[in-house]
Amino acid sequence: MSSLKVIEKRVFEDLFGIAGGIVLDFSNRSFADFFRDTAKIDIYTDKYAFNGDSKAKRLRAFWETEPDLVVGNILNDLLEIWQYNTSKDEQTAAAQQYKRAVDIVARLSGKQTEKEPTEQEFLHRQYQDISVKNLSLDPSLVPVLESRLTEAQHCLESAPLATIFLCGSILEGILLGVALQKPKEFNQATNAPKDKDKKVKQFHKWSLAQFIDVAFGLKLLKLDVKKFSHELRDFRNYIHPYEQLASRFEPDKHTAEICLQVLKAAIADLSGGRN
Question: Are 201 and 187 in contact (CB under 8 A)?
């Protein structure tokens, strides 16, 4: 059985909205599919029915029955689904609870929780020989992205808004290119975006946020890059003038430097340049 404490179980029950038999937005069928696809477990066997037959009671039976590593892996994937289903405002409100859940999963999995760097720590990291050419992308796409990267660097001093927009477009192009090279991994990811029929969307219909989250889930991007990539995505959305007007967003060189650093870090991660 796992070593989950009563108070730790409460963290996940509150975060996943486990009440009245419900777990996240799972139907009975999708709940069974999740356990089968993630851990090759039939959650609807009698083994997990000693508390009752609902999804919530079977989940409780699961973490009372299985060892720490198995429970940790399942809870980690459930956290990814929670992130995908939860709005940014709701994620912000539950940030402390989510952080505790991540720490619990790390303990169960025997891993150290990755410490998020401060903005200054992130900015001061040095990346050598950063190039889109280091990525396994469609060769015809590489010159386009390389040209945009060069332009983004040239715009840093005099046109920070242009740097921000270029960095966002380059990151989206790179992640789409990586997905096209690894279609099976991206399509089978637990948090791959689905349409109303529960089918994984075609890549051209994925948002930048979805590419970032799936790449992180596949361990192609590290935690710090995921965090700051979402900030770059938010800045990139100000390409719409009325969005910029409503938020009174006034980008400066510092903002542009953050976005350029995010792009460099993402390229480093995707090319295997960081340990």
Answer: no
Residue 39 contacts by C-beta under 8 Å, 6 or more apart in sequence?
70, 73, 74
Is 236 within 8 Å of 266 (Cβ atoms)? no
Helices (H), the chain: 6-15, 28-39, 55-65, 68-85, 88-93, 95-109, 119-123, 142-154, 160-181, 183-187, 208-217, 223-236, 241-247, 253-270
CA 16, 22, 25, 27 torsion-angle sign: positive
Give the residues across from 200 on adjacent strands: 194
Tell me the per-residue pLDDT of 222-272, one tens digit each, with 9 for 90 and over: 888 888 898 888 888 788 888 778 878 788 898 899 999 999 999 999 987
215 and 144 Cβ atoms separated by less than 8 Å: no
pLDDT tens digits, one per residue of 95-147: 888 888 988 988 888 765 555 667 777 777 787 777 888 888 999 999 999 99
Helix (H, G, I), strand (E, B) or coil at 29: helix
Token duo for residue 261 = 């650093």
